[in-house]
Specification:
Blueprint: H1 5-12, H2 17-27, H3 34-51, H4 57-82, H5 99-117, H6 121-132, H7 137-144, H8 148-188
Helix pairs in contact: 2-3, 3-4, 4-5, 5-8, 6-8, 7-8
Length: about 190
C-alpha cells in the first residue's frame, strides 16, 4: 500500500487509542498524566515512522509506551533521590537520626540508585514493577508480555546484581576509610 504517513498512522496507530488509554490508565499511577503520555507516545511513534515504518505497529506502539513510562519513572526517581528533604518532615525522633546516620543513609540510597541504573534494561524494568510498583509476578508478566518464569528469573538476577554492587561499594568505602586512617597516622605519626 502506498499510504501517506498520516493515513498509515490513523489506520495502524490511532485505531488502538482505546486500548492504549486503558493500558496507560491501568499502569500509570497518575491518571491526569495519561493524555500527555498518550500524546508523547504518538509523537515518538510518528517521528520513528517517518524514518521507517514498523512491521508490527501495535507492538511498536505499546513498546514505545512502556519505554516512555520507564523513562519518566527513572527521571522522577532520580529527582527524588537527589532531593534531601527536611528532617522535620521525617516521622522519627530527632535524637534517633544523627547527622552521620543521615549522611550514611543518603550515600547508601545513592549507591543503590546507581546500582539500579546499572541493571540491564529488562531486569531494571521488572525490578521496578515488582519492588517499587509492587505489582504481582503475574501482573508484571502480563504487562511486559513475558512468562511469569522470566519475571522470576529477572527478579532473582536483579537482586543478585544489586547485592553484589552494594557489597562491592561497601568494601570500597571500608578500604577508603582504612587508607584515610593510615594517612592520618603517617601525617601525625
Amino acid at each position: 500500500m502506498n499510504d501517506t504517513l498520516e493515513q498509515w498512522f490513523a489506520r495502524e496507530i490511532l485505531a488502538h487509542e482505546q486500548s492504549l488509554v486503558r493500558y496507560l490508565t491501568r499502569i500509570w499511577p497518575n491518571r491526569d498524566d495519561v493524555p500527555d503520555l498518550r500524546q508523547e507516545i504518538y509523537i515518538r511513534v510518528f517521528e520513528s515512522a517517518q524514518k521507517s515504518r514498523p512491521e508490527l505497529p501495535k507492538s511498536f506502539l505499546f513498546t514505545t509506551a512502556r519505554h516512555l513510562m520507564t523513562d519518566r519513572l527513572r527521571r522522577s526517581r532520580i529527582i527524588f533521590i537527589g532531593a534531601r528533604g527536611d528532617l522535620d518532615e521525617l516521622n522519627v525522633l530527632v535524637d534517633e537520626l544523627s547527622p552521620e546516620h543521615h549522611m550514611t543513609s543518603i550515600q547508601e540510597l545513592q549507591q543503590l540508585a546507581h546500582a539500579f541504573d546499572g541493571l540491564p534494561t529488562q531486569c531494571r524494568t521488572v525490578m521496578w514493577l515488582r519492588k517499587v510498583e509492587q505489582l504481582s509476578q503475574k501482573e508484571v508478566a502480563a504487562q511486559l508480555g513475558v512468562h511469569e518464569k522470566a519475571v522470576e528469573k529477572q527478579v532473582a538476577r536483579g537482586m543478585r546484581l544489586l547485592t553484589a554492587a552494594v557489597l562491592a561499594g561497601n568494601e570500597i568505602a571500608a578500604l577508603n576509610e582504612q587508607l584515610d586512617a593510615s594517612k592520618s597516622e603517617i601525617e601525625h605519626g
